[in-house]
Design goal:
The complex is a heterotrimer. Chain B is mostly helical. Chain B has helices at residues 6-18, 26-59, 63-77, 88-122, 131-150, 160-199, 202-231. Chain C is of the alpha/beta class. Chain C folds into 2 domains: 3-35 and 256-283; 45-252, Rossmann fold (3-Layer(aba) Sandwich), CATH 3.40.50. Chain C contains 13 helices and 6 strands. Chain C has helices spanning 3-14, 18-34, 45-55, 74-90, 102-115, 117-121, 138-147, 149-152, 191-202, 215-223, 233-243, 249-252, 254-283, and strands at residues 62-68, 94-99, 129-134, 180-185, 206-210, 229-232. Classes of the chains: A mainly alpha, B mainly alpha, C alpha/beta. The interface between A and B is large, with 130 and 119 residues.
Chain lengths: 216, 232, 286
């Protein structure tokens, strides 16, 4: 295999870029901090050029569905139409009325994207109500603790609960300050340890998951 | 441009997405397809605008910067070799630069922000403040230590670890109950907000509500009639 | 009622069609919106802390106000962002709007158009407040902003002019030149990234407005003092609106918040009663 195709090349590149950012934070080397900041500026621009990755992925996936007339292909065709049309509207050419900030781009954002985006997440309200009815069972003592804690917080969040009894709010604050905080602190510290370990493994070239995949 | 039909579009798309709660249906699939296409294009519009501003204001000013920008463009275009089996190795180059830079930036302060500061905040004077504060401080210390021990899976949770694991489980259940209660509030709020949007323009709400629900009920009715006819 | 038919009721309740649940959801949301109950809303500890923290920002301070939210989070975060922006506009501080979510940049623009700082507060764009726009690079972009604001945000969002041509940017270069940071956030990038790239290296006082679902994640940072104050969820947003004397969208949504919560609690109660009744009858008390 030619040297430039070897997996060691991107691994070394990852390690070099990582150390390039890490060292000047702890060790004052003249000019290194400035160079690292300039690297961030360059890297930001370089990574933003990947903006069409999602576009091309959808084009290939749904283009295949349309060309092969698979089940649901009219919806795939509609995805391609909306994506291409709105991308063209969003190209920054203000001289011909295209680009972010123009009337058509903003109207589509306001009357199409905003309600769709909002509704997708708003429908979770239905699922949580259904889950509360079907799945939330106090089968064990631990589940009962979860249930009681959840109910107290729900009653404290709703004006009707705090109108019924003013004690729900201080109880909710206590649950937030003590067991919730302890749980999340343990999670944050554990996650930080995990991230550190993952970072060191990536630097050593043992973690290669981000380099996998490929093909059309 | 679309102000006149804007409220009608809003009501149509909101109700189309909500129609999924009845059953998967073509209205929902149409709205979902629209969302996918528009969301991707929206991001691209913003990114292109930012890149153009970067070029105009920062990178087009000197010869060296122009060269660097061109180099960034060339390396950035290597991302698109993700779709090629033969030249996939080229995709790894910009990816590794981005991942390496990101890891360096996040790791350098993570040790302090999410590790040392958090540990310092746990080791507070236990006997300070009111009796309730003292009680809470002791509880927090015990609970954090137990939760950290709980996530140590290398050793089996037997002997003394059995008790710390039990304390950790109850701590986490109380914490997750709080998470659940707040999640309910968020999810309900998101729906309440959209219901309010629908009520802002009752004609569109009523029209599309009747149209979409009516068509779904009719479709169900016709499917049932067909089933009955087939049985007969 | 016979034992057999009472068994049937609990089992029937457990296997009820989900669409009945969804229909009840619509009823308990639409009814109080159309016919408000106006239950009283008390003020909680967190909202009071957040209000006092924003209120205590000294005159002349430079405040970065970051809109890190999506359109989906608007019902909870929209009222917070409007209320916080209003509160800041009422003070004599310099406000630097920015966004690390593309939707946030548009939402910030919408808030400017809603509040009309020039008409209603006597502010001047580019002198008292500025919309620096969107940076697509997340945590890397926050580091870039901390080092050099003009690299992170080359042009402003409203007029698309180079940022350094505005009077408000005089003497401003990076994080060290700002005094306070407020972020209204939906997720990632959000407070952990700000804490890592701004608060830990530069020690800038930081407060957030977040979704209710983010409350658990905020706790360790708040307890450690990395986040000075926060409001999370619609209830906190309504309390904050009351404190600033501008009851608005969040207050209007408190009644359906109550009815939906009662419904969920009722569902949990009925579901558990039905479960225990059927379990005891099946298992014979085991």
């Amino acid at each position: 295999m030619s040297w430039y195709r070897r997996i060691e090349v991107p691994i070394i590149l990852t390690a070099v870029c990582c150390i390039f950012q890490l060292v000047p934070y702890f060790v004052k080397v003249p000019g290194w901090q400035t160079a690292a900041e300039q690297m961030i500026d360059w890297d930001s621009v370089m990574e933003t050029f990947a903006t069409f990755l999602g576009f091309i992925t959808l084009l290939m996936l749904h283009g295949r569905m349309v060309s092969q007339r698979r089940e649901g292909w009219p919806f795939s065709a509609w995805i391609l139409v909306t994506m291409v049309v709105y991308t063209i509207i969003g190209i920054p050419l203000k001289s011909i009325g295209l680009g972010k900030g123009t009337a058509l781009f903003e109207d589509i954002r306001m009357y199409v994207l905003t309600p769709l985006s909002s509704a997708m997440y708003a429908s979770l309200g239905f699922w949580i109500a259904s889950a509360a009815y079907r799945a939330f069972r106090a089968r064990t003592t631990e589940a009962a603790v979860l249930l009681i804690s959840g109910t107290i917080v729900m009653l404290a969040n709703a004006p009707v609960g705090t109108s019924l009894w003013g004690g729900f709010a201080p109880l909710k604050d206590w649950i937030f300050d003590v067991p919730n905080m302890a749980t999340m602190r343990g999670v944050v510290i554990g996650a930080a340890l995990g991230a550190l370990a993952l970072g060191v493994r990536t630097l050593m070239g043992k973690e290669r998951g981000y380099l996998r995949g490929g093909g059309g | 441009m679309l102000e006149a039909i804007g409220p009608w579009l809003t009501a149509f798309f909101l109700l189309s997405i909500f129609s999924f709660t009845y059953k998967e249906n073509p209205w929902f699939r149409f709205a979902e397809a629209t969302y996918l296409g528009v969301a991707v294009a929206y991001s691209i519009g913003f990114d292109l605008d930012w890149l153009l501003n970067q070029w105009n204001t920062i990178w087009s000013v000197t010869g060296t910067k122009i060269l660097l920008f061109a180099f960034a463009l060339l390396i950035g275009l290597l991302f698109y070799f993700r779709f090629s089996k033969k030249y996939f190795y080229l995709y790894r180059i910009p990816l590794s630069i981005g991942v390496g830079t990101y890891i360096g930036l996040s790791l350098r302060t993570m040790v302090f922000a999410q590790f040392l500061t958090q540990i310092k905040a746990t080791f507070i004077p236990l006997a300070a403040g009111t009796p309730l504060d003292i009680f809470n401080n002791i509880l927090i210390f015990v609970m954090v230590v137990c939760v950290l021990i709980y996530f140590y899976f290398t050793a089996e949770h037997t002997g003394p670890l059995k008790y710390t694991a039990k304390i950790a489980r109850y701590t986490m259940m109380a914490g997750f109950g709080s998470a659940y209660g707040n999640t309910v509030m968020t999810r309900m709020t998101l729906f309440i907000g959209q219901a309010r949007n629908l009520l802002k323009h009752p004609p569109s709400f009523a029209t599309f509500g009747i149209l979409i629900l009516g068509s779904l009920l009719l479709r169900d009715y016709m499917a049932k009639q067909k089933q009955v006819a087939v049985k007969d | 009622m016979t034992k057999a038919s009472s068994e049937g009721i609990w089992e029937k309740l457990q296997s009820i069609d989900s669409r009945v649940i969804y229909l009840l959801m619509w009823v308990v949301v639409l009814w109080p919106l159309m016919s408000p109950i106006n239950l009283p809303v008390g003020v909680g500890r967190q909202s009071k802390e957040y209000f006092e923290w924003v209120d205590s920002i000294p005159d002349g301070s430079k405040v970065v106000f970051s809109y890190d939210l999506s359109f989906a989070g608007l019902p909870e975060l929209g009222p917070m962002s409007v209320a916080t922006f209003h509160h800041l506009l009422e003070k004599d501080v310099k406000i630097y709007l920015c966004a690390y979510w593309n939707s946030g940049a548009d939402i910030a623009q919408d808030d400017i158009e809603l509040l009309k700082p020039e008409e209603n507060y006597g502010k001047v764009y580019g002198v008292d407040y500025i919309h620096m726009g969107y940076n697509p690079r997340g945590e890397t972009g926050m580091t870039q902003f901390a080092a050099d604001v003009y690299k992170a945000f080359p042009n402003d969002f409203v007029n698309n002019r180079p940022l350094d041509t505005y009077e408000i940017m005089e003497g401003v270069h990076g994080a060290e030149d700002f005094d306070y940071l407020i972020s209204i956030e939906s997720g990632t990038p959000g407070s952990p990234e700000w804490v890592r790239q701004w608060i830990e290296p530069y020690g800038i006082p930081f407060s957030i407005g977040a979704l209710g679902v983010s409350v658990p994640g905020v706790a360790p940072y708040y307890n450690a003092g990395q986040i000075k104050s926060f409001i999370a969820g619609l209830r906190s947003a309504a309390e904050y609106e009351m404190l600033i004397g501008r009851p608005d969208v969040a207050m209007a949504q408190q009644d359906p918040l109550s009815t939906t919560h009662i419904l969920v609690i009722a569902f949990v109660a009925i579901g558990n009663i039905a479960y225990f009744c059927t379990r005891s009858k099946k298992g014979g008390g085991s």
